[in-house]
Amino acid sequence: MNQPQRFAPAKVDFDLTAIRADFPILREPVRGGRLVYLDNAATTQKPETVLHALDGYYRHQNANVHRAVHDLAERATTAYESARDRIAAFLKATREEIVFTRGTTEAINLVAYSFLQPRLQPGDEILLTGMEHHSNIVPWQLVAARSGARVVPAPITDRGELDVDAWRALLSARTKLVAVVHVSNTLGTINPIAELIREAHARGIPVLVDGAQAIAHVPVDVKALDVDFYACSAHKAYGPTGFGALYAKRAHLEAMQPWHGGGDMIRTVAFEGSTWNDVPYKFEAGTPDMSGAIGFAAALDYIDSIGLDAIAAHEHRLLEEGTQRLSTIEGLRIVGTAPGKGAILSFVMDCAHPQDIGTILDQDGVAVRTGHHCTMPLMQRFGIPATVRASLAVYNGSDDLEQLERSLAKVRRLFA
Ligand code: PMP
Q: Is the CB of 209 under 6 A from ligand 1?
C-alpha cells in the first residue's frame, strides 16, 4: 500500500528536520510513540521562538501598558506596540488599522455590533457563503435578529467551491455587508476574495473576510485587496491562543462607536458623558493580552524566516501526496476538491463513522479532527454529519502522511 517513491522529495532548500526541531511539542511522545499532528486547522503548534517570547515577556517586561511611567511599563508598552507594527506590516496595513482582539471570533463580533448593527434596517441582508465557520454566521444572525434583517447564504458547488454566479445574483440594494471566509477550515477551498471584494464594492457594499485559516498559508495584502475588514487569530499561525487582530479601514474605525467600554478606550470620563480614545485604542477596553501580542509578532517573524511562498509550496506538495495516498484507501471519499485549494484533507469512509476513525488514528498517535468543524450548514449541504479532517502545516512531512495512510488501512481492516 505504501509507495513513498511515488512522491517527489521535498525541496532541498526546505529543511524539514530543522523546522521540526523548532517545535518542542513534536518531541512529545503520545500513546507511547511519535506524534503525527494533523490538526493544524484547529490550532497550530508553537515554535521555540514564540515560547521564548512569551516566557521572556513575563520574565523581563511584564507591567500594565499605556499607564505608568516606570521602566517596566515602558518596556511592556514598547514591546506591545511594536507587536502592532509587526502585525500591521504582515498584513500590509498601518498600525492605526489594527485592533487587537481575542481572535477571529471577537473581531467578527466587533464588526457585527459596532459597524453593522447601527446600519441595519428591517429587510436588509448580510450575504454569506455556505462554507462559513459558525464564527462568521452566528454574530450576523444575532445582529440581524435585533434589526429585522436576515442572513443570506450563497450556494456551494459539489467540489466545495463558492458558486460565484449565484453569489453575484444574491447581491442587491438590500445587501448591507458581504462576509466570506478566505480559506475554508473544512474544505481547504481558497475563495476568490479579490474578485468578490471588487464586485461588492462596485455596488457600494463593504466586505469582511475571515482570514483565520489564511494568514499562515497564503500572503495577505489588505491594501491591494481593498478589503474593509480582515479578521485573524494568532493560534492558527504558530502564535498563542486567545489572541488575534481585526484589520479595518481607518475611515470605518473612525465612524464606528465603541463596542466594549472600560479602561484604555476612553479619552475622558465624567458622569455627564465620556469621550473616546483615538483608533485603534477606542476598541481595546481593559488590560490587553500583552504576551499574546508579543507572541503573535514572534510567530509572524517565524513565518517570514521561512517564507510564506516556501511554506505554501511545501504544503501544496504534501496536499498532492496526501490526496494520492487517500485515494488508495477503498471506500474513502474526499470532501472538498476545489482546484488550488489549501492543505486540508476532509474525508469520510463508507465503513466507519468519523468519530471511530479518529479514535483508531489516535491509537497510532495520529491527531486529526472529527466532527462538523464548526460548519454545520456545510455538513448539511453535503448531506453528512461529520468528516475526518487532516490539516497540514509547515512541520508536516511524508512520514506523517504515510502513517495516516497506514492507520486508515487499519481502520478499513477493522471495520470493513
Ligand atoms: N473562522 C475559521 C475559518 C476558523 O477556522 C476558525 C477557528 N476554527 C474561526 C473562524 C474562529 O477562530 P477563533 O476560534 O480563533 O476565534
A: no
Q: pLDDT (tens digit, 9 = 90+) per residue, 133-171?
A: 999 999 999 999 999 999 999 999 999 999 999 999 999
Question: Does 91 map to a domain?
Answer: yes
Reply yes or no on whether the pLDDT at 4 is more than 60: no
Domain span at 220? 51-304
273 and 348, same structural domain? Answer: no
Tell whether 356 and 211 lie within a shared domain: no
Q: Which atom of ligand 1 is nearest to the CA of 244?
A: 15
Q: Please tell me the pTM assigned to this model.
A: 0.97
Is the CB of 233 inside a 6 Å radius of any atom of ligand 1? yes
Q: Is 135 in the pocket of ligand 1 (CB under 6 A)?
A: yes
**Are 262 and 363 in a shared domain?**
no
**Under 8 Å between Cβ of 265 and 283:** yes
Q: What is the 3-state secondary structure (H, E, C) of 177-240?
A: EEEEECECCCCCCECCHHHHHHHHHHCCCCEEEECCCCCCCCCCCHHHHCCCEEEEEHHHHCCC
Cα-to-centroid distance, 9 and ligand 1 (Å)? 32
Q: Is 232 a catalytic residue?
A: no
Structure confidence by residue, pLDDT tens digits, 177-191: 999 999 999 999 999
- Annotated catalytic residue within 63, 374, 379, 384: 374
Which of 189, 213, 215, 346 to probe ligand 1 with, by most ligand atoms within 8 A of CB?
Answer: 213
User: What CATH number has the domain bearing residue 204?
Assistant: 3.40.640.10
285 three-state secondary structure: coil
Measure 135 CA to ligand 1 centroid, in angstroms.
6
Q: Do 16 and 28 reside in the same domain of the chain?
A: yes
Residue 64 belongs to some domain of the structure:
yes
